[in-house]
Every structure is written in C-alpha cells, then in structure tokens.
Amino acid sequence: MDTLQLVTVLAHFLAFIIYMELIGFVLYKNPKALLNRLCALALVPFAIWSFGDTLFQGAPSPGSAMLWNNISSLGWCTFPITIFWFYLAFTRHEKLLKNRFFITICILLATFFIYQQWSGYFIIDCIKQPYGWSTAWAISVQSFIFSVYYFLFSIACIYLAFDFGRKTRSLREKKQARIFYITPIIALALGSMSDVVFPMLGISSFPPIAIIFILIWAGGLVYSITRYGLMTFTPTAVAEEILSTMADSLMLVGLDGKLISTNKMTCSMLGYTEDELKGMDFSSIADEIEISEIIKRGNVLSRELSYRTRRGEKVPVLFSASAVRDKEGEMVGIVITALDITERKKMEQELRESEEKYRALVDNALVGIGIHQDGKIVYANEALASMFGYSLEEGIGASIADMIHPDERDFVMKMAQRRQAGFDVPTTYEIQLLKKDGSSFHALISNALIKYNGRPATLITVADITDTKVRKELEQVNKELEAFSYSVSHDLRAPLRSIDGFSQALLEDYEDKLDEQGKDYLRRVRAATQRMSQLIDDLLNLSRISRTEIHYEEVNLTAIAKAIAAELQKTQPERQVEFVIGENIVARGDLHLLSIVLDNLLRNAWKFTSKHPHARIEFGTIQQDGRLVYYVRDNGAGFDMNYANKLFTPFQRLHKSTEFEGTGIGLATVQRIIHRHGGSVWAEGEVEKGATFYFTLQS
Amino acid sequence: MEEKIILLVEDNPDDVELTLRAFKKCNIANEVVVARDGVEALDYLFGTGAYAGRDLSVMPAVVLLDLKLPRIDGLEVLRRLRADERTRCLPVVVLTSSNEDQDVVNSYQLGANSYIRKPVDFVQFIDAARQLGIYWLLLNEAPPKGRR
Hints:
The complex is a heterodimer of chains A (699) and B (148). With 699 residues, chain A is an alpha+beta fold.
C-alpha cells in the first residue's frame, strides 16, 4: 500500500470517527428529543458509508473492494431517506413521520437501491488507482433512477430548509435553516461530482470522496447545534432560556451555603461575573437570612431584605427561596430568587412622604376638612370634629342634616342634592351650623364633588367665621352704630321738641304781638322740625333693618298685603281704589321685614295713585327664568325709566315733595331688606301710566 | 281728697318747661315735683339726701320718668323702685324721646306701667299730656297706702 492510498484510507477513517463522535454528541445533548434522535439516525448512514469506504480504499483486490463497496452502499443508499426525515422534523413536518405508509415506502426505496447495488446494477467495476480504488458505474435504467432518487431527496431537504427559513420568525431558526440548506448544497455538489458525475463520465483520476465532502454538511448541522444551542423546544431548554432572560435574580445554592449557579440578572444586580459568584458564600451577599434557616423551614416566601453588591451597596430585594429535593425526597440544594425592588421602594417612599405631607396638611389645617357620602360624614379631620364639638370617633357617621341650623337645613340639603345631580349650584357660601350641644355658629363652607371608595361623595372645607376679624370688626361697628342710633334717637329729637314747643308757645302767647308774616315764619319753623323729626325716624328705621337679625319662617304675604290694604283704605275712606291681591302667596323670610317691604310698596302705590280717580293696585307673582318674582303694580304717577336706577337710593326722590310727600327712604329700605334676604328688586314704570316693583327672595 | 302729686324726672329744662306748659294747657293743676336726675328722684321717693326727713306717706300718684338722665339713668331708677317694697307698686310712666326697641322692652321688663314717646309736635304733646293726666290722675286707682 503506497502513501497516497494510505492517506485516502486514513481520511475516510477519520471521517468515520468524526461521524461517530457527532452521533454520540447529538444523543448526549438531548437523547430524548425527536430532532436529536433523527439527527443521530441521519448520521448513521454516513458513518457506515465512511467505514465501508475506509476498507474499500484500502482493499487489496478488486473482489474485496467490491465487497466493501457494497457495505458502503448500505450508507449511501439510505442517507437520502434518513436525512430527509431529519429535515422533515426540523421544519415541523413530523406528522408525516408518523405516517406508517410513508415510512414503509422510504424503507422499501432504500432497500430496493441496496439490492440493486448488491445485484451489480450500479457499480460494475472497481479500478485500482494510485490513491486506492475508483468505481465504474453502469449506464443503466437503475443507476439513472438512483440518481433521480438521490437528487430528489437532497433537493427536497434543501427546499424544506430554505422554505422554513423564509417563513419562520425566529432569528435563531432562520440562521439554522440557512446552515441547513447551504451546507448540503456545497457537500452534495462536490460529492456528486466526485462519486457520481466523474465515474459516470469515466473520469477516474479523482477519488470518490463524497463522504468526506458530506462532512461539511454534517459539520454544519453540528455547528448549528452547538452555536445556536437548542435543537428543540424542551423543558430543559425553555428553563435555561427563561433563567437567562428573567428579571429575577436566580441562584442555586448548595446545602453548604456556596453558590452553585447563577443567572445573568444576578450578575448584573450584584456586579460580579458568573465565575466570581460560583463557589461564593451566600452569606457574603445576604446577611439578613441564613441558609440554615431556609434549610430548616424548607422555603421562604416573598420576604423583603437586601443584597450586598460587589461595591458594598445595598439592593432591596423581594426574596424567595425553596429547597430542592431529589427523587428520594432528600434535600440537595436551594433555589433562591430575588426581585430588585429598588424602584418600588423608592416609589413607596415617595408615596409615603406624599401621603404624610397631605395628612399633616389636613390634620393641622385651621379649617375643618371632611367628606360626606349618603348624608353621613365618612371622613373628618380634627379641626372639623372639634368645630362641631365632636370627638373624631363621634364625628364619623354623624348625619350632616343634624349639623345644619334648622332654618337652613332644607335649603342646604336640597342644594347638596342638586349638586350631586350635576347642577351648577354655588360651591362656597355662608351657612349656620349646629354643634353637638345644639348651639349654632356661622361658617364659610366650600363643597367639591369627589369619588370616595369608588362612589360619589362631597369634600367639604369649613371655616368657622364667628370669631373672624372681619366679623368681629363688623360686630364692633354694629355696636357702635347701635350706640350712635340710640344717641340720635334720644338727643337729636330733644332740641326739635324745644324748637317746636316754644314756637307753638310763641304763637299762642304772643299772638297779638306778631303780624301775619311773623306767624307764618313760626309755622314754617314748626313744619321744618316735623320734617326733620320724620327724617330722623326714617333713618333710624333704615339703620335698624341692617342691624336686626333675620328670622326665617314661612310668611303669608297675601294676608299681610290684605291687612295693609285695609289699613290704607281706612286712612282715606273717600278714595276709590281697587286692590287686586293674589291668593296664597307665601315666602320664606322674616315676617317683620317682609311686612315693611309690602307696607312701603303698597303705601307708595297708594300715594302715587292719589291723583288718579280709577286707581288700581295689584300684588301678585310671576315666573321668570325659573324663579318666583313678586310684584306690586299701580296705575299711578309712574316714573321716567331714565331715573330707574335712582329709585332705591336713600333720600333720592323723583317727585317734588309738594306733589307727593315723603323722605325718600322707603324704597331704600325695601332694597335693603330684599338684599338681606338674598334677593333683588327692580322697577318698571312710565310717567303717568303707573309703576311696577318686582322683587325676588333667596334663590 | 288730698292733692295728687306728679313726680317729673327730667334733666332737660326745656322739656320741663314744655311739660309744665302742656299740663297747664290741659288744666292739670296738680303739684308737679321736678327731679333733675335719677339721684334726685330716688332721694325724693326714699326721703334721702336733699329730701331727708320728708313725709314718706305722701307719694306721687304717678312718676313721669325720662330714660336718659345724668348720674343714675331712668332704667336704673326704675329698677331700684321696683326692688324697694315702698315703691314697688308706684305707677311709673316712661316718658322719653326714643322708641328704640331695647328701651321699650327694658322698661316693661323692669316694671314700667306705661311707655310714652314724647312727640316732637307740641300740639300732639299737649294731647298726650292731657290723656296722661286723665288716665293716671283721674281714672287710675292708686295702690292702697302702706301695703304692697
């Protein structure tokens, strides 16, 4: 055997060894996976082929060369089938592999071609060459069919891989598929040349080393396996994938407390490399929990503790650990997972600080803050509770109706209902509230609709304004005003009495000494004092209206108007005046003050119709813009609308006092009373055609 | 029938003059004792100070009491009269300038028998004086002496 032949033999033997290695490797990787098994199966014919060819190339005689060639054929007649099976499985066509008919056909095909070779229809001769042996192929139908078979299956494999690579979305599978169709193209092209085309063309100077070229293919498959790792979707493979990509740190710790294995997250969390971590003591990472404790308890669930990083920093983690046992139930190690909760901790801290800030704000607020829902207080701060004289516990659950002054209860509750129903009602207003002991206080209240426990509620802020500076000042001013009025009432009138009294005395006692002009002067003096006296009285009345407290009640305006009408008629029985007074007119307000309003308006109407023979005075109500408007109408002197805005100014008169007497205080008084009732008053009129005075009360 | 005395408690001399004139105009000739302030009024009624030793069996038929007075004001005089057994039943008519609610209410609460606001119009004042005289000096039956 010369050197060249030895090289050929060794090359084939080496190929055989490599094929055997690959079979072992693939099965070692995952002996249970279908794909790995099929890969191994696909490599078996190559191994047989390379083994046969080793001995074929080293054969001493044509007879033994033919024999080993026939052994080789067991491989090269079978491999298109087995490799096709592998490609089917890789490209997810494993269903076909479960079809017994298909498998039987495949096996029969391979057997058929082996039989053909063994019957001498393919290789008809072995020719001694310097490198070993070459073969001579029969130009026959059988060898042509074999070529077709061999090409069809090879091309089917390449097509399957190509098509799969095109369709799959996985980048890994795309790369694998590419290797799976490029390597066979190269290997088959070269192998077909050396083993089929050249011999068929009678070229024998090149050795038939297809099996060596096919190493490229086999190598490609193995490279794909090692480079891209997983050949198939198995629990183990999935687990590895998850462990490396999971956001939790994962460690396998031995019973001795030493780290056995860690995932990527652990490394990036702690700043160590995987190798540095291996063998490290768990206690140097976490000192708040002992491995012995975990071993004793079997598992630890969701405990918050901190890990120490390489740089000595602390990382807060949510820690879980559980013991791993073997089939016999014996503990073999511990699996530890830990989630980095730095961000969560930070957010919790921020939330807590924000919560504390607002709680402090509410707790220390000078105003009362509370929430009511379904008519009950569901939350109150200290200020609110103490404002009402409740303890914090008593305050919760208190009925809000009980906290409002009875005079204002219905009105406020109605307003609250309307607010809840989505109507636009005032959110901030003054209110009289009731303490637990029944005493009342003035407050400013602000309302805002909120959600509380998922349902609509009202957030209230309440300021007790009884003792506010402004109110105190107002009270002071009121007191001073009262003292002033009192003084005016007594002292301003006394001199008037003297002037009038002594003027009258002069007129009586010195009548004979005064001429007519002198008497006239004295009469003017007396008239002026009367007028002055009336002015003082009116002024005092006006200021009294501002000072008196309003007592709300239901007032029958019809009855009052009728009484005033009767009284007016009595003062001047000779006048023919038609009074038209609406029935059942009621209002909520102060009986005394509303009587003054009607008295002034009806008296005015009476006065200004005095020059009209067919006087008619009306009192009634109309609806305007959804509110009730009261009116007093007459057909008397009327007024020029240009001066309508002056009507309600104190001492402002639109008529000469010689025409109609009066001090000009009446309508100012009316306006003041109406304003104090939260209403408004206005007038319409035309000279000599009458006037109408409209007013509203608290809306 | 003994003379019925009127005690006029009034600090303003004009008002005293006008009141006396009014009485004269309507022919009330009864003796009018004038006290210029509250202290004087109390001295008279209780026989103290300038009136020490006065015969207290003689009491006015009516006291016309102004409210705004120097030293002791009208309401205080009224309070003391009502607090003393000797004068508890003495008819007191408040005759004053104001008709402030507080004055009227306080006067009645302290036991005033009547409250009259002095009209500015002197003609009306004379009319008021006449009715006052008729009522308190003629119609009204004084409480029995020496009894409560």
